[in-house]
Amino acid sequence: MKPPRVPLFQIALTANLFEWYEFSLSGFMALAIGRRFFPATGDTTALLLSFSVFAGSYLVRPLGCIVWGYWSDRRGTPSALNASMVTMAVPAALIGCLPTYESVGYWATLCLVLLKLVQGFGAGGEAPLSGYYVALHTAGNRRGTLAALAASSAYLGMLLASAVVWVLPHFSTWLAESMPPGMGDTAAAQSWRWPFLVCLPLSIWIVSLRARLGFAAPHSLPHQRQRRPLWPLIQAAIIVALMGVTIYTELFWLPTYLESDLGVSHFEARASNVCALIVLIGSITACGYVVRWISAARIALFGTTAIILWCYPLFASLQHANLLSLILTQSAMAAMAGCLSGVFFVLVTDLLKDHWQGFGMAMAYTLPMSFFGGTAPLVNSYLLAHTQQLMAPAIYMILMGLIAFPVLFRLSLKAHVDQAPKVTAAF
């Protein structure tokens, strides 16, 4: 029996909202975190150390994906999603309460690392299981749209984090000026904590919303021994790897790159990033809607081709860009990324639903997203530091696109063959 429309919409809307809000904060505030939780060093070292902690939280996700994927197949997606949400939310809020390195030394660093590892474990099931559930249980013309909404919910969280980081310096300045000198300065110095403290009420709202929905347990395969071919899992992993590197480079790492390496002001870097996120959400929604006419594989192939051809010139245009050029360039990158993110859940669910279920979806999403997406900021920072080539991140993205292109091309041809009899029958 198909689940009712409203619960599927609400599941899709909240699918990745919290996870990407907090993880985006960790990236957008990487320099502030690096300065407060590590010994006094230059900004480049602080960024590398901060991104290392961020990458470490992603490297523990595979363990989480195994646990949550197994939990989902045995006890149902609702239970797994709520448990993973709590496991993410508590460490996220506690980060806002931690003492800094200046206060307690390496104990602050250790606590930060431990909290990020626990949070990464919790995040191993949230995004793939929610998107898989929506794509699996939605039929007809609504399928692509709701699956795209599940994907865009991640960027709504990123947009919220980007907007919070954008306005935070201005709010801190206002607070310092409006309060008595001693109190105002202290409050402004502690303002970096507030975005993390927001994580707790945000997660409570999402869990309470899902608790009232009562959506059904996921489709499950019979318990007899199932053949599980590796090739669909490998194809899904390659697609996710490209998507992860693209998203985390263009929309997560790029603002820091603009500020620290290209000398762009904080305001312009964050303003262009907010605009790009809005374009990304629109691109994801549009691509999900178009799935009713064009196969998901063809849309993803178009986006991959655009990345291969246009990534390098777009990165080159950033070198001497004003605010308008930054907005246009990042928006173009976001539109290309949306072609992948908008159809991902439909494309990968169809690859895995017959053999791998939620466990396979959690593995195919979490492993490559951890090892390629989550480490992309660190890899890009390392490439810049050791090659001194500002275009190195663009080359990295192009190489990932070239690896994914044959997979998507083959899936596109298969989709065309599968649809051919339907077109012939219509005549």
Q: What can you see in these coordinates?
A:
By secondary structure, the chain is an all-alpha fold. It is built from 20 helices and no strands. The protein has one domain: Growth Hormone, Chain: A (Up-down Bundle). Helix content is 82%, strand content 0%. Helix 2 packs across helix 9, helix 13 packs across helix 19 and helix 14 runs parallel beside helix 16. The radius of gyration is 21 Å and the shape is globular. The two termini are 32 Å apart. The relative contact order is 0.15. The C terminus is likely disordered.
Q: How much is the average pLDDT?
A: 80
Low-confidence sequence ranges: 215-225, 422-427
Q: Rg to the nearest angstrom? A: 21 Å
How many structural domains? 1
Helix fraction, binned, reads: over 70%
CATH topology: Growth Hormone, Chain: A
Query: Do you know the CATH architecture?
Result: Up-down Bundle
Q: How many strand units? A: 0
What's the quaternary structure here?
single chain
Number of helices: 20
Distance between the termini: 32 Å
CATH class: Mainly Alpha
